[in-house]
From TrEMBL:
The keyword Ribosomal protein does not apply. It comes from Acetobacterium fimetarium. InterPro entries: CO_DH_a-bundle (IPR016101), CODH (IPR010047), HCP/CODH (IPR004137), Prismane-like_a/b-sand (IPR016099), Prismane-like_sf (IPR011254). Its cofactor is [4Fe-4S] cluster. This is Carbon monoxide dehydrogenase. Keywords: 4Fe-4S, Iron, Iron-sulfur, Metal-binding, Nickel, Oxidoreductase.
């Protein structure tokens, strides 16, 4: 059970030993049962998209079968598999966004689904050309905007509305290269069609269709998800929180919220604040109700409410193994199907809530916009009543937690920058100019977006934390989302005090702006906030994003969503570094397309590098080369 991949996190090892004592199975047992992973799958050359297959072609040219039964080559098979990962990732982010828009469509002044950031509602409505966006009645406007957003998924003509935010050189590249995304559902459908047996075989064409689909995620679904969540639940502002499994409280009813979609979790937080529910918890012997978050539902809730972060992807099982979780409540994405069986080893109720992610094995309470608060009340009551079933002899909560700052939306960052500007002038710039100024002046050398998951192919959190520590030491400011952000939180990188780990330039910026060197920008869909920020810098300097000294990094990624993200970040002109090699090496041509050739038409490329220190060395070379080219 003990595994070299866990050595960074001593706490995990202790809990895994506890799991063994408790007779509970974990991902490490299942990882060991997999033995050696399939080399064909690893190289991306296994095809099972038709029933003549599965076909495996040789990842080594000249050795073994060179084509599948239909004649598909390694290039075609690898490109199709990669493209279908983009389609899967795009659909996950975008379908999440659609649920947020549906909640907005159901919003009303007297219901639990309300408009909480009216200014943003009016701003986006004006951006999308709705007449009288500044004067219309709030909910009439919200419903009109929601209807327009729903059209972004299925409109027959035109491209994504948010593209118009982009700096013009980048927009021209998208139009020239035919990767400006159309309706989101159309892009996913076209890509699935294109990669059906007997359709596209040209690997570059498949890649381009995949990139256009991913662009409909980044500049479509994810951006809609972020902006509309802000309208519904509030745009995040900087606030303190704390992180790691020590945030679980042995004296309280602990409810774990896990997944991605804030609709349910917002209602659970409301329900848990109900004085009647708190009284019930006390009557059951608890001091109160403690909500802790995991993965991106956790990120959404910490960004807006400061909800404590229990951990990231790897820690979902460890959380239950503490024996102190009364209910694990999940919505969609990144939820191990193994959790209900694990929960049964303890007293934990496992509650799935979405028909898109119905997980068998315990309780299913279907969440809907019409009954959201009632569903949440039922869930919280089940958790509270379960407190008496906790077995004290099975409780072991690691005494480890770390204070952290969260909530750095683009608006919050600009607000911080304004406060510095105001030391010299009475006017707020309301722009990212102070940030671009310090980058252009060389006080900081560049910026990095560090995102993504955990993956047993990397030591838990080690690559995330090493990359971020090395970058801030070398005066590169980091923004982060997803499980990478939670790794940073646990390592103390999201504290103001982390400025002491920085180079001189970045330290001074952190002190003057009163920010940590690594800024938590939210969940996986909130990578659209990073796109927005980089685009604002490009607009400020009126240059293509590809010219700016910025990079994207996913040190420990694992999901299809991460493939889609990497693809739209490259499509947005930002070189993207992956610490886990995607399953493409079986096609040297496709690999070269990703790592070199796409630079020619999109202005950015992928870099694969498993070693985090070597990765940072490459990133610094990249950033300095961009600086030289810009003459800064
Ligand atoms: Fe084999 Fe071609 Fe069918 Fe793939 S599409 S399984 S390569 S016959
Ligand atoms: S939760 S997609 S494991 S970042 Fe967004 Fe973490 Fe990756 Fe899920």
């Amino acid at each position: 059970m003990s595994n070299e991949y866990l050595k960074f996190d001593q706490m995990a090892e202790a809990l895994l030993e506890k799991a063994q004592r408790d007779g509970a199975e974990t991902m490490w047992d299942r990882r060991a049962a997999q033995k050696t992973q399939c080399g064909f799958g690893e190289a991306g050359v296994c095809c099972r998209i038709c029933a003549m297959g599965p076909c495996r072609v040789s990842p080594v040219p000249g050795k073994g079968a060179e084509r599948g039964i239909c004649g598909a080559s390694a290039d075609t098979i690898v490109a199709r598999n990669f493209a279908r990962m983009c389609a899967g990732g795009t659909s996950a982010h975008s379908d999440h966004a659609r649920d947020i828009v549906h909640a907005m469509h159901a919003s009303k002044a007297e219901g639990p689904f309300k408009i909480r950031d009216e200014a943003k509602l009016r701003r986006i409505a004006a951006e999308w050309g709705i007449e009288a966006a500044d004067t219309k009645e709030t909910y009439a406007l919200a419903h009109e905007l929601a209807n327009m957003a729903l059209e972004e998924f299925g409109k027959p003509f035109g491209t994504q509305r948010f593209l118009q935010r982009s700096q013009k050189d980048r927009l021209n590249i998208w139009e020239r290269e035919n990767i400006a995304p159309r309706a989101i559902d159309m892009e996913v459908t076209t890509l699935m069609h294109s990669t059906h047996i007997g359709c596209a075989s040209d690997y570059e064409s498949i890649f381009r269709r995949g990139m256009r689909t991913s662009m409909s995620d980044g500049w479509g679904g994810s951006m809609i998800g972020t902006e509309f969540s802000d309208i519904m639940y509030g745009t995040p502002t900087a606030k303190p929180s704390s992180s790691n499994l020590g945030v679980i409280d042995k004296d309280q009813v602990n409810i774990l919220i896990h997944g991605h979609d804030p609709n349910l979790a917002e209602m659970v937080v409301l329900a848990a604040e109900n004085p009647e529910m708190i009284e019930l918890a006390k009557a059951k012997g608890a001091k109160g109700i403690n909500i802790v978050g995991m993965c991106c539902t956790g990120n959404e809730m910490t960004m807006r409410h400061g909800i404590k972060i229990a951990g990231n992807f790897y820690q979902q099982e460890l959380c239950i193994i503490t024996g102190a979780i009364e209910a694990a409540v999940v919505d969609v994405q990144c939820i191990f199907p193994a959790l209900p069986a694990l929960a049964k080893k303890y007293h934990t109720r496992f509650i799935s809530t979405s028909e898109k992610a119905k997980i068998s094995g315990d309780l299913y309470i279907q969440f809907s916009e019409a009954t959201g608060l009632e569903n949440a009340n039922e869930i919280v009551k089940i958790a509270v009543e379960n407190f008496v079933n906790r077995d004290a002899s099975k409780v072991e909560i690691p005494d480890v937690k770390c204070d952290t700052m969260v909530g750095y939306s683009v608006e919050a960052i600009i607000d911080h920058l304004d406060k510095v500007v105001n030391t010299n002038t009475t006017d707020k710039t309301g722009t990212v100019k102070p940030l671009t100024d310090v980058i252009y002046a060389g006080v900081i050398r560049g910026a990095a977006g560090v995102v993504g998951c955990n993956n047993p192919k990397q030591v838990h959190d080690l690559a995330h934390v090493t990359v971020m520590k090395e970058l801030i030491k070398r005066d590169v400011i980091c923004v982060t989302t997803g499980c990478a952000a939670q790794a940073a939180a646990k390592a103390g990188l999201l504290q103001l005090e982390a400025k002491e780990m920085c180079g001189r330039g970045l330290k001074e910026v952190c002190e003057r702006v009163n920010i940590p060197p690594v800024l938590h920008m939210g969940s996986c869909v909130d990578i659209s906030r990073i796109l927005d920020l980089v685009n604002l810098c490009a607009l400020e300097k009126d240059v293509d994003t590809a010219l700016l000294p910025v990079v994207g990094i996913a040190p420990e990624w694992m999901s299809e969503k991460a493939v889609s993200i990497a693809n739209y970040v490259v499509g947005s002109g930002i070189n993207t570094y992956l610490g886990v090699i995607p399953q493409v090496l079986g096609s040297p041509n496709f690999t070269k397309l990703l790592t070199e050739d796409c630079q020619e038409f999109i202005g950015a490329h992928f870099v694969f590098e498993k070693d985090p220190i070597v990765m940072v060395d490459k990133i610094m070379e990249d950033l300095e080369a961009k600086r030289t080219a810009l003459g800064i």
